Amino acid sequence: MTKSKIQSRAGFTLIDIMVTISVMAIIMAGALPALINVADGMKLGQGQRDVYQEMQTARLIAVASNRPMRIRFNCPVAGQYRLTELNDSANDRCSDVKWKFPANDTDPTSRPNHDGPVKLLPTNVAFGAASTLEFWPDGTVHKQVGAENPWTQVPVDANGTAVTVVRGTLVKTITVNGLGKIQLVQ
Predict the structure, then answer these.
(1) Does 3 fall in a domain?
(2) Maximal CA-CA distance, the chain
(3) Running DSSP on this structure, what letter comes out for residue 134?
(4) Which residue range is the domain that position 76 belongs to?
(5) For residue range 54-96, what is the model confidence (pLDDT) as tens digits?
(6) How many domains does the chain have?
(7) The domain spanning residue 173 has which CATH number?
């Protein structure tokens, strides 16, 4: 009698491997837009938090130094912002060449000494609705509505005024009311 040997055919065929790779490619292609949206949302959120922090800094410096501070958006160009001391004699306060950071002098009695550096929003993030805001030493917030001087106080209600940052179709908002309460809006 002869014994026949049974051979094991364990393993995968080329067709099995190709089908598996094709299915995985289709699943990854479907997930890619979601991953891109997550990355866009993260950059937008970072921009929102950075602007929020700069607004908090403006209010803090205004109260601590007893000098009005402005936060200027799209200053000197789109997507940039800067904290500047209120100085009505200078319309070019966005210039980081003329109004350097740190200040040209170290004399604390001269102005301006509280101007901040020009800051940038993350790549492909821009300001939507944003007007220059003025933080006063009493903690209140003002913005220019017409040609009035001093500027009008922002409404004290919960809505106040909004600063928006945009990336593609995504929008994030920071609200500030006339009493200086600054909030991130999701």
Answers:
(1) no
(2) 113
(3) E
(4) 14-185
(5) 999 999 999 998 889 999 898 888 889 988 887 655 567 777 7
(6) 1
(7) 3.55.40.10
